[in-house]
Amino acid sequence: MPGLPQIEDGLTRYVPRIIEAPDLGRAAVAMVLRDAAAGPEVLFIERATKAGDPWSGHMAFPGGRLEEVDADERAAAERETWEEVGLVLDDARLLGRLDDLQGRREGRPAGLVISAWVYHHAQPGPLVPNGDEVASTHWFPVSELHAPDRHVDFEHPAVAGHRFPGVLVGEPERHVVWGLTYRFLEVFFEAVARPLPERSWEGAQSSADAAERG
């Protein structure tokens, strides 16, 4: 698994796909890496469980919708990271940007484009989930995201009968990265020349996006 220098080199060379769609809503997330003895770790959050919230309980990167106070998508990702887990990214090094992704419903584009920015934070310090939006935080080894026993089929209650590619990063059935966050991981590993194992979406990727975006 590449270390931080290789990751930074890969992301520097990578040309992300940018979706220019001024009529659509925008959101942004931050993929934050930190140093660890066994190699870099990535930050995931477990979203709080709330009735009526399409993201309820999902594993994700910190982030959210672009607001009037945000100068651009990157500013939104940094603000949301601070608000959700108390992590300031001013001192972090920006490594690069991933492809913009657009959710789909019934095979049609949904009204939200999500951008992703990758950072390395040398000393992130203790995280403080805000409770209202984030139930818990999880630092997970980047190398383990490739481990075969971590790759699972995941079924979400909102799309019963369909199973999706996922990566187990904690408790089984609870801490599984899937859907749009899994797709961002696919882009990240393509950018650093270590693609994830090919997995079948069973023709249900649009259903997964619909479940995530509500």
Would you identify the regions where 5 or more consecutive residues have pLDDT less than 50?
A: 203-214
Report how far the terminal alpha carbons are from each other: 35 Å
* Biggest sheet statistics: 8 strands, mixed
CATH class: Alpha Beta
Radius of gyration: 16 Å
Secondary-structure element order, N to C? HEEEEHEEEEEEEHH
The CATH architecture comes to: Alpha-Beta Complex
Rounded mean pLDDT score: 88
CATH fold node name? Nucleoside Triphosphate Pyrophosphohydrolase
How many beta-strand runs? 11
Characterize the overall form.
Answer: globular
Number of helices: 4
What is the strand content?
25-35%
- Percent range of helical residues: 10-25%
Class of secondary structure makeup: alpha+beta
How many individual domains? 1
Would you spell out the secondary-structure blueprint of this structure?
Blueprint: H1 4-13, E1 25-34, E2 41-47, E3 59-60, E4 63-65, H2 73-85, E5 93-97, E6 101-105, E7 108-120, E8 134-141, E9 151-154, E10 164-168, E11 176-177, H3 179-191, H4 205-213
Parallel strand pairs: 1-7
Antiparallel strand pairs: 1-2, 1-4, 2-3, 2-8, 5-7, 6-7, 9-10, 10-11
Question: How would you characterize this protein structure?
Answer:
The protein has 214 residues and is of the alpha+beta class. The chain has one domain (4-209): Alpha-Beta Complex (Nucleoside Triphosphate Pyrophosphohydrolase), CATH 3.90.79. It has 4 helices and 11 strands; from the N terminus they run αββββαβββββββαα. Strands 1, 2, 3, 4, 5, 6, 7 and 8 form an 8-stranded mixed beta sheet that branches. The protein has a 3-stranded antiparallel beta sheet with strand order 9-10-11. β10 and β11 (176-177) form a beta hairpin. The longest helix has 13 residues, at 73-85. It is globular and about 40 Å long. Mean pLDDT is 88; it is low at 203-214.
